[in-house]
Design brief:
With about 240 residues, this protein is an all-alpha fold. It has 2 domains: about 100 residues, no CATH class; about 120 residues, Serine Threonine Protein Phosphatase 5, Tetratricopeptide repeat (Alpha Horseshoe). Helix content is about 75%, strand content about 0%. α1 runs parallel beside α4 and α10 runs antiparallel to α11. The longest helix is centred in the first third of the chain and has 25 residues.
């Protein structure tokens, strides 16, 4: 009986904390600026929610995720800001560290809406620490370095790590090869394309790989012929 009562109390405490978050989010449009500043004092931390939701963490995480999506939808319509973004993401990922989509979506919001690329990378790397086998998170780190930092060598490293993940696909390998080429690592890029040509079961992918192999071999031959300072374009086929 005592065990059942303890479980009920923990579940009730979890519901109270989650309900408090729901009420806070729902009141964003109706409260004054002074009250809004005070709301932060009553918003439960991710650690508090975790400690009160023993045995129900995934359930609480799913519920908060549902509310987070609604919260972001309201933001997209101009009905509220993202003042609770960090708190919600922290609570969801503390409750369920394996929630890959939460890290991924939060990273997209961080750079697309907040313009905070370091925060985006931090969210992804936190997710990778909890989910080291996730190709999705590794790929997104590589994509961020590739597109926003133009750090092609670092991007290639992350794409290659994504390709080695259990759920990695040929897409990650393809991006790794392109990134290596952009970084000037043509010899590495050539080997990546050769591996793809050998391993792919998709005819179109094999055709693309063979095309890139031919172009890179011509380029590397030109480098050997004209010297290591050759920076001309890859000869067209």
């Amino acid at each position: 009986m005592n065990a059942r009562r303890g479980t009920f109390v923990r579940w009730l405490a979890c519901l109270v904390l989650v309900a408090g978050i729901v009420v806070t989010l729902g009141a964003l449009d109706t409260r004054s600026q002074r009250v809004r500043r005070q709301e932060r004092l009553y918003f439960p931390s991710g650690r508090a929610i975790v400690e009160s939701s023993v045995g129900f963490r995934e359930v609480a995480a799913d519920w908060l995720w549902f509310r987070f999506v609604q919260y972001f939808g309201s933001y997209a319509k101009g009905q509220n800001d993202l003042r609770y973004f960090d708190l919600l993401v922290d609570a969801i990922t503390r409750l369920d560290p394996k929630f890959v989509d939460a890290y991924h979506f939060a990273s997209l919001v961080a750079w697309s809406e907040l313009g905070d690329f370091p925060k985006s990378l931090d969210l992804l790397k936190r997710g990778i620490l909890a989910n080291p086998g996730s190709a999705k998170l590794h790929f997104q780190v590589g994509f961020t370095y590739y597109v926003f930092y133009q750090d092609y060598r670092r991007a290639a490293t992350w794409f290659e790590a994504a390709a080695r993940c259990p759920d990695g696909t040929e897409m990650e390998s393809r991006f790794a090869a392109f990134a290596r080429h952009r970084a000037g690592d043509d010899a590495v890029s050539l080997e990546l394309w050769k591996e793809m040509a050998r391993s792919t079961a998709i005819p179109q992918m094999r055709e693309l790989a063979e095309t890139m192999i031919a172009r890179l071999e011509k380029h590397l031959e030109a480098v050997r012929r004209y010297g290591p300072d050759f920076i001309g374009p890859i000869p067209e086929l």
